[in-house]
Structures are given as structure tokens and as C-alpha cells.
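It is worth pausing here to work through a concrete case rather than discussing structure prediction in the abstract. The textbook approach is simple: state the sequence, then state the predicted structure, then interpret. We follow exactly that order.
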Amino acid sequence: MDSFSKMGSAISGMFGGGEETDGMGLAIGESGDFDVGDGFNADDLFSVDTMDETGNNVEMVSGDELTSIVLKQGADKASLDWASELMLLTHEPLRRDMLEMQRALQTKFFGELPEGWRVRCFFRYFTGWCSLVSQQHAIEVSVHYDWLAQPTGKMKGEQRQELLAYHRSIELELLAISRLEGKIIEELAGAADWTTSEPFSEEAQELREKFTKLCNEIRVHLATQESILPPMLREYWGRVSPPSLVDKALAAAKRAQSIASKGPDKPKMLMWIKHYLSKRSISRANQLVAKLPFNKRMAVQFGRMMEHDELIKYLRCIIEDKQPSDDSLQVDMKAIKAAQQQAEDEPSKPKGPGTGREKQRKAGMVNAVLASANARRVDVPLQDNQMARQLASSEDPLHKFKMDGAWQNKTKAVPDNLYKKIGIDNIDAPRRL
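Step two, the predicted structure:
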């Protein structure tokens, strides 16, 4: 079956029965009782031994059920209406991706002293995931709070400020974790000569600890949102979701993308949502795509957006112990050691223009000039008006021209007939300014 047939069957399956649906792909009055877990495979089902926010060792399971401790499918299926599903659209991908990364960072896969390609694989995925987290933050602010929760009148003013402060702290932590890539690679260069001590990477261990702490903080935040927002939205907006809900969420995510994170080879919120929604229910994912605008449907159907599988394959390479063929992931340890040795041998060699040291030197010069320009002149009294009184009572000019009188005739030597160009005849005497 070709792409047109697949798209046509998905759309006809959605609209063929004439059933009215809301913006989340659910029939009005229905709960999320679709063929749950029909898209999971063996690689998606695993458990991770990690620590919770209290420091206790716990086992987290990535299974065919929801990872949310608040919105569990089971005895409370009727509660999974559009408000709950709105939370799960982005919360489930976040939690499952965190479990995937925590599994890849385990010592049995990542190693006590990881190889260079494993480090590159993890941070290749982590960089794309950071972009998705920023897009999810934009959805929380623009859609969940500003558009849906604010009209209810039940949101306190400090709650939005707390949300923005939480986003800021998460982004700073993501930045701190991303900087560990270079530190681990440098540590590997020095570890190549170890012969007496057991190979161990302190930076890799710091990466595990920082990422575990980050995941615990995110999970607590997601559980809090799932406890507060759905009842509030359900009471105000009713049992049917507002129109164009998914479109507004995707538009907010697109606005949050930086220029560097845009392009067909960059992770998108739509493909992230679609990937994990299809794990829960393929029919739900097809309905979600069918409700998109025409250009987005075509981009999804014809592969003009990067599938999330293309990003998650980097973590699977770590787990399956298969080094990818991507040349950009290769780490030349000899080149790293040679660069370090050259830096040690020539510490005082001045760097060329455009380098960090040259930019720092120029910035220092600019700061010195600005400091001089903004400094207060000590020879000019500013606190009293004595100088102004002296200037007012003075009858002698402060500047005396030469007494030969030649300066008075300088206006007749105007070049290029300037006065004629501006429509004025040449004057005989200079104007008094």
C-alpha cells in the first residue's frame, strides 16, 4: 500500500462513521480506552534501577501502561478525558525519554570509563532532547496556563512565576549537563595512559548523578501538573476540548525553537508526540495526524520531518553495543592528546585574531575606554555654580583667532559651487553663528 492509500485509509477510518470528535481525537463522551500498548515492542519494555528524590533506590518500569503515577489507566479509565490526554501528550514522551537515557547511562551499558563513541551518542540524543524540553516548556506557558487555565480564575499570580522559575532552573541544569561532554572526552584522553589504577571516569559518574537529580525534579513537576490542571480545565471548559487545541500547542512549540534547531533533520514536537502516541494506540496517532493542516499532513506522510526513531537510535546503539557508522561520532584520541600536548608546550604563544584571548583583550580595551569616558572630570566643579557665574561675567572670548584677519575670508573658498547647489548666491561676508 503506498503513502496515498495509507493516508486515505486513515482519514476515511476517522470520518467514515460520521462520529463527532473533539480536538484530541476522542469521540465526545469517550475516555481514552483505545487498544492500549499495541505499538510497544521488546526494546520499549524494560526497567531501570535508580534513586528517587529522597535518595532511596527504586525500580522504574517502562511498560505498556502509562508512566504517570497520577493518571493511571485501569480502574479509573473514565477520568482520561481530553484534559488528562492533553497532559499525557507531552508528559509521557518526557518520562519515557528520561527512562531511556537513564538506562543508557547504566554502567553495564555506558561503562565506568565510557568509550568516546558512547559519549558522543548519548550527547547527540541529549542535545535533541533539550530542544524538545524547551518546546514542551513553551506549551506549558502559552497553552496550559495562559490560554486554558487563566480564564478559570483559579490560578494564583505566583503560580505562573513559579512555573517560569522552574523552567529557568531546568534549562540551566540542562546546560550544565551538556558541558560534561567535553570534560568526559578530555578525561578519556588522560585515562589512556592509566596502567596501575582501575579505569574510572569521575565526570561520567557526575553525569549520572546530575541527570538522575534532573529526572526526579521533572517527574515531581509533571505529577503536580497532572494533579492540578485536569480537574480545573474539565470544570471550566466542559467535557469537550477547546477548538484547535493541538494546533495551538504545536504553534507554541515552533515559536520556542531557535534558528539552529529548525530544519528537516531536527527533532520536532509533532513527531515526538506522534511517536509515543502510536505506541499507546496507532489509531489515535492516525487521528491526530488527520486533523493537522494540509501542509503538516503532507510533511508527515512523505517523511519531511525527522522521525523520533532516528534520534533514539543513538541510545539503542549504546544499549546494543553497536558502534554507529556516523563519522561525526568518532573521537580521535590521538588528535586530542596532540592538541593538549601542544597547549602545554606553548602556553605563552600569543593567539591570532579572532581567538578567545584576542577577543578578551579587545573587550578589556573597550571597557577601559568606556570607563575613561564615563569617569567624572576632577577639574570641572559640578556641585556649585561658581564656574557658570565666572563665564557669565567674563567679557573676553575663551578662544582668540589670529589677528591677521585671514579667517574671515575662508567662506569665499567654498569648493564645488556649494552655494549655487543649494540655491543661494555667493555671499560676501560670513554669517555670524
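Step three, interpretation. The first helix runs from residue 3 to 15. Residues 35-331 form one domain.
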